[in-house]
Design goal:
With 414 residues, this protein is an alpha/beta fold. It contains 14 helices and 18 strands. It has a single domain, classed as FAD/NAD(P)-binding domain (3-Layer(bba) Sandwich). Helix content is 35%, strand content 23%.
Length: 414
């Protein structure tokens, strides 16, 4: 009970990663979740090598890697099935130090939650930041429906529409609509399945990715007015993508209407002035909502949680630690948010000449070499956490030695 207390508001990927990392470093952690369960919003998530190395710090990276399903070749296609580019899982793993791992969000949430004491997570618990606190002075204050909680540290992990962010930075405009909407489904794999791929059309995109359990995670995006919804989203997918190459129509047909998730995309291309104020700090979409076109939203939230715990060790200078967290994370995530926005601009092209030029560029880059395509993720997927991994620390502690050189110990800030 003498350990400092951290309260996490929000039980998504970033909040849980921060909670696990803080718990392992000696904090007494409580996670407050408004919903009645930890059932995640969403379907699949791609965990790139940067996020896997971050999860190594808390000892679950290898378990996540064991769920990898993609082997062999993938790439990009046009709606008629013509191949625009090729990617290879072995080349990606060699360049970035590991494969892309596609998992269901529920699998990741379950594994993170299992790394916390059962009493640490409180569901059915709406909470509000009353006072962010002043580092070195008064504690932060959170109000729930039945009590007021004091905390040495508060982590705002309450998503794109973060109330914590609004309380810390009321003058910031927050996320803006990115100009397109997305759909996500998880279905049984069809009998004839192409390799993993993305298909880019005119102002629209489709992605098909296998999961280890034999199902398919598919996602789609299209330009649309903000807030637009269809009475039947499965029928809307058929209208937009039903004449695209196989197995796109088959996957849509296999979906249950109630299993089609649709969400507009919002992004924060105008960065916050900082990711912290007083004793309160932001992680994940609360801090840097981004378009999904680089597949890095959840990956960056995982990085946030690990880097935060690295900077705020119990007994240290909390103010300096939170300033260090902002210094590490704000430039990196701002660059990734803006890069994702630029790529989404290519997806949103609708004129025939612009789409033809885009497709020609992609085909040319692919013919010149897969490394040119993978270069998009240089400085992103090759990131390493600023501390030794949990697994490495445990191994060498048991052997009574200290590694002379450990790649995971380098602080790579890009």
């Amino acid at each position: 009970m003498d350990a400092p207390r951290a309260v996490v508001i929000g039980c998504g990927i970033g909040g849980l990663t921060a909670a696990v990392a803080l718990h392992r470093s000696g904090w007494r952690v409580t996670v407050l979740e408004r919903a009645g369960s930890l059932e995640p919003v969403g379907a699949g998530i791609g965990l790139a090598p940067n996020a896997q190395r971050a999860l190594d710090v808390v000892g679950i990276g290898d378990e996540i890697r064991s769920l990898a399903a993609w082997q062999g070749e993938g790439g990009m296609r046009s709606p008629d099935g013509r191949r625009l580019s090729r990617t290879d899982s072995a080349a990606a793993a060699a360049r970035f130090g590991g494969p892309l791992v596609l998992v269901h969000r529920a699998a990741l949430i379950d594994r993170l939650a299992a790394a916390l004491p059962a009493s640490a997570i409180r569901t059915h618990c709406p909470s509000y930041l009353v006072d962010p606190g002043v580092a070195g002075g008064r504690r932060a204050m959170i109000r729930t429906t039945d009590r007021t909680i004091e905390a040495d540290l508060v982590i705002g992990a309450d998503g794109i529409r973060s109330a914590v962010r609004g309380a810390l930075f009321p003058d910031h405009p927050g996320p803006s609509y990115a100009g397109f909407t997305t759909w996500r489904v998880v279905v049984p794999a069809p009998p004839e399945l192409f390799a993993p791929h993305e298909t880019w059309g005119r102002g629209a995109l489709w992605g098909t990715q296998p999961l280890k359990d034999g199902r398919i995670y598919a996602y789609a995006a299209a330009t649309a007015p903000a807030g637009e919804r269809a009475p039947d989203e499965q029928a809307e997918l058929l209208r937009r993508f039903g004449d695209w190459h196989a197995p796109v129509p088959e996957i849509i047909a296999a979906a249950r209407p109630e299993g089609v998730l649709r969400n507009d995309v919002h992004q924060m291309t105008e960065p916050l002035p900082a990711f912290h104020r007083g004793r309160t700090v932001l992680v994940g979409d609360s801090a840097h909502a981004m378009a999904p076109t680089l597949g890095q939203g959840g990956n960056q939230a995982i990085e946030d949680g690990i880097v935060l715990a690295h900077h705020v060790a119990p007994g240290g200078d909390l103010g300096a630690g939170l300033a260090g967290y902002t210094a590490d994370r704000l430039p990196r995530t701002t660059a990734i948010v803006r890069k994702a926005a630029r790529i989404s601009g290519l997806m949103r092209l609708t004129s025939a000449p612009a789409v033809a030029a885009r497709n020609l560029m992609m085909s040319t880059l692919s013919r010149l070499g897969p490394g040119l395509v993978l270069r998009t993720f240089d400085g992103i997927a090759d990131w390493r956490p600023p501390q030794h991994t949990y697994a490495a620390r445990t191994k060498h502690a048991s052997a009574g030695t200290r590694p002379a050189s450990l790649e995971e110990g380098r602080d790579v800030r890009r």
